[in-house]
Amino acid sequence: MPSTSIRKAEYDPANRVLSVWFVTSGKRYEFEGVPPETFAAFRSAFAKGRFFNDHIRNCFRYRCVSDDNDL
Question: Which residues pair with residue 62 across a beta bridge?
């Protein structure tokens, strides 16, 4: 996942949960209720950080689940 702000992202389609690891903080957040179409668009977006800010952040309920750098 080439992005300057997002280190890694994983999607659980059964639960519609998007997990996102951030480069600077190393924190992982889970976003709930993300439709598969939104994840597909996020994956294919050229500017993942911009897509995230415009279409995911503040659009879905989320929580911080870790602050380590585990991948």
Answer: 31
Q: Domain extents for the chain?
A: 6-66
pTM score, two decimals? Answer: 0.87
CA 45 to mean position of chain CA atoms? 12
Task: Extract the tokens encoding 37.
Answer: 């179409």
Q: What distance in Å separates the CA atoms of residue 60 and residue 34, rounded to the nearest whole number?
A: 7
pLDDT tens-digit readout, 12-49: 999 999 999 999 898 999 999 999 999 999 999 999 99
CA separation, residue 28 to residues 24, 55 (Å): 11, 18
The answer to whether the CB of 12 falls within 8 A of the CB of 20 is: no
Per residue in 29-39, pLDDT (tens digit) is 999 999 999 99
Look up residue 44 and give its two tokens: 């294919």
